[in-house]
C-alpha cells in the first residue's frame, strides 16, 4: 500500500461461526538524503561533506563508506573518490546517497637552481610550470603578475613565485 491502510480478515467455519480481526499497516516516510552535486578540489585541500535531509523522523544516524558515523565528514583530497552515506531515522527507515569528489593535480613550479651574475646585470626569471590545468596565473614576491620578471642585480636576493591554474590550485 502507498497510504496507511486498515485490513480486516474474517474467518467462518462450516457451522457458520465467524470471527474477525483487523490490522492497520502504517506507511512511514523515508528520509530524503542528498549530498548534492559532485565536488572538485585541489589535491591536498580538505573538504567537508554533509547531507541535507528531509522527511523521515529524526533523530538520524549516519554511516559513511569511510566507516565514520558522524553527520558530516572532513578529509584531505588525494584522488578521485566516491563517498556515500546511509541515513537512518528513528523508525529504522533508511536512504543512501553518493557524491563524487574530483581531485585536481597541483601545478609544479621550477625556477631552476641558484644563478650567479655580476652586480648591475639584469636577468629574466621565468618558471617552468608542469601539471595543473592551463591557463596559469603568476604572483611574484615583487608584486608582479606576469609569467616572467626582469630583475636588476644589486645584491644577493631570493625570489618566489606562486602559480595558480584555472582550477585555483597553487604550486
- H-E order: EEEEEEEEEEEEEEEE
* Percent range of helical residues: under 10%
Shape by Cα distribution: rod-shaped
Distance between the termini: 58 Å
Report the sheet with the most strands, covering strand number, pairing sense and barrel closure. 4 strands, mixed
Give unreliable regions as ranges: none
Description:
With 171 residues, the protein is mainly beta. It is built from no helices and 16 strands. The strands form 7 sheets. The chain has a 4-stranded mixed beta sheet with strand order 4-10-9-7, with no helix packed on it. A two-stranded antiparallel sheet has the order 1-2. A hairpin with a 5-residue loop joins strand 9 and strand 10. The chain is rod-shaped and about 120 Å long. The model has no long low-confidence stretch (mean pLDDT 92).
